[in-house]
Amino acid sequence: MTASVEVTFLTDGGQPAEQVAGELAGFIGGAQRSLDIAIYDLNLTDGPADQVRAAIKAAAARGVAVRLLYNVDFPNPIPVPPPSQSDTAFIASLAVPTKPVSGVPDLMHHKYIVRDGATDAATVWTGSMNWTNDSWTREENVILKIPSAALAAEYAKNFAELWDTGRVEGSGKYDLAGVPVDYQGVPVKAHVFFAPGRGRQMAHVIAQGITHARRRIRVCSPVITAGVILGTLGDLAHRPRPDFKGVYDRTQMAEVLGQWRVDPHATWKGPAFQAVSAAFPFASKITTPYTPTSVHDFMHAKITVVDNTVFTGSYNLSHAGEDNAENLLQLDGASLADRFVEFVDAVYARYAAAPAAAPK
């Protein structure tokens, strides 16, 4: 029997941190030979920290080769993504090989694990979720667990680049063929893109999907700042279009709009976003402005659905994200797309009750 893709969706207030820690610890506990972990933000406390630490130390104790990459922040003028606050003391306490990565100024923004990558049982954990208590309890996030030796090999190649160089720049410069995976007994085709090497292609493939959609479009992203995607949505607003719903983080988008107003290269984007957000049914989550000590309750899921194709991973629909170390999964399958649409529609319904006006 072929192992199936597993999907977990997190919502603000929808699950305790211990539950997510248990799911992550269970995945780590299934490793037999290797664990390659690339995580943007790792800052856990209390019981969840103990659960994850115990799982990693137990894996290493039974001979699993564990490596961990994490982001080292560089002062970043953009508000999205908010800066990571990786707990270096916690990371040191894991007693496994680790490496900080800084793109200066681009980010190591991945959130993936390659488990047993050189075996037939290889599985990828990926999605939008950082390893923080707030990520697990106060944010919308997506977790994907994909059993596939072929897909794991592609993630392992990306991990090796980052591990060997310690740099974001230059990673991901290759084209990857689609590979077959399974979702609940139904074949699904999976294709992965890595930025920065294929960052421009990531934005364009999503824009092309939106352009050619016939039945439905769903957009769920903290921000929408990639020029090609804004332009594509603007064009779509002037012709008959499929069923559409979108969700973004209103607080973060307001910060972006403020920066655009004083950036001579981006002044067109503010009016473009205002036009798009007025033309389409968008809901927006009002979140807490970032500070190191504030609650981090961002609308953090990154999902685009066009007909029966899902795009998801670590990539925000942002121009800056094209230069970060990011991964974007394209998954082609009707039943899996239905599952993602149900989630986006539920998030939309939750935040559609907020005042309708876009941020200014």
Name some characteristics of this structure.
alpha/beta; 7-stranded mixed beta sheet; Endonuclease, Chain A; 360 residues; 10 helices; 8-stranded mixed beta sheet
Describe, in plain words, how this protein is organized in 3D:
The chain is of the alpha/beta class and 360 residues long. It has a single domain (6-351), classed as Endonuclease Chain A (Endonuclease, Chain A), CATH 3.30.870. It is built from ten helices and 17 strands. It has helices at 17-29, 46-61, 88-93, 133-137, 149-165, 199-212, 227-236, 250-261, 269-279, 334-351; strands at 6-10, 34-39, 42-43, 65-71, 98-101, 111-115, 123-127, 131-132, 141-147, 179-183, 186-195, 216-220, 243-249, 282-285, 303-306, 309-313, 326-332. The strands form three sheets. Strands 10-11-17-16-15-12-13-14 form an eight-stranded mixed β-sheet, with helices on both faces. Strand 12, helix 7 and strand 13 form a beta-alpha-beta unit. Helix 1 runs parallel beside helix 2 and helix 6 (199-212) packs parallel to helix 7 (227-236). The termini are far apart.
Summarize the structure.
The chain has 360 residues and is of the alpha/beta class. The chain has a single domain (6-351), classed as Endonuclease, Chain A. It contains 10 helices and 17 strands.
